[in-house]
TrEMBL record:
Transmembrane segments: none annotated. It comes from Polynucleobacter yangtzensis. Keywords: Signal. The lineage of its organism: Bacteria, Pseudomonadati, Pseudomonadota, Betaproteobacteria, Burkholderiales. SUPFAM superfamilies: Cytochrome c. The keyword rRNA processing does not apply. Residues 1-24 form the signal peptide. One of its GO terms (molecular function) is electron transfer activity. The keyword Signal applies. This is Cytochrome c domain-containing protein.
Length: 105
């Protein structure tokens, strides 16, 4: 009886592992495309200098960690109704981190 129970638990755990999709690595190219299409122009207006990248490199940045960056991307998506999927947010975050912030995961 005990072995049957353990086998059942093992079978359930195994099926859960194979049926759960693995987290995909962020798509940096997609993140860059989204940044260029949906973020750059707004950021260029905000800086007043026509350069959307300046917002990422300014000395008074509100983004001090990878967690802050994730929150800011999510906030922009929600507040500006950018209609990004969670995967897109992850791609943008990964691209911005690699390109500008260089936070450790």
């Amino acid at each position: 009886m005990k072995m049957t129970f353990l086998r059942s638990i093992s079978a359930i755990a195994f099926s859960a592992l194979i049926s759960t999709p693995a987290l995909a690595a962020p798509d940096l190219a997609n993140g860059k495309t989204i940044d260029q299409q949906k973020c750059y122009a707004c950021h260029a207006k905000k800086t007043g200098f026509g350069n959307g990248d300046m917002i990422y490199t300014r000395s008074d940045s509100k983004v001090k960690s990878l967690a802050d960056l994730k929150k800011m991307v999510g906030l922009c998506n929600t507040e500006l109704r950018l209609d990004l999927f969670p995967e897109d947010e992850a791609d943008v975050t990964a691209f911005l981190n690699k390109q500008f912030y260089k936070f450790k995961p």
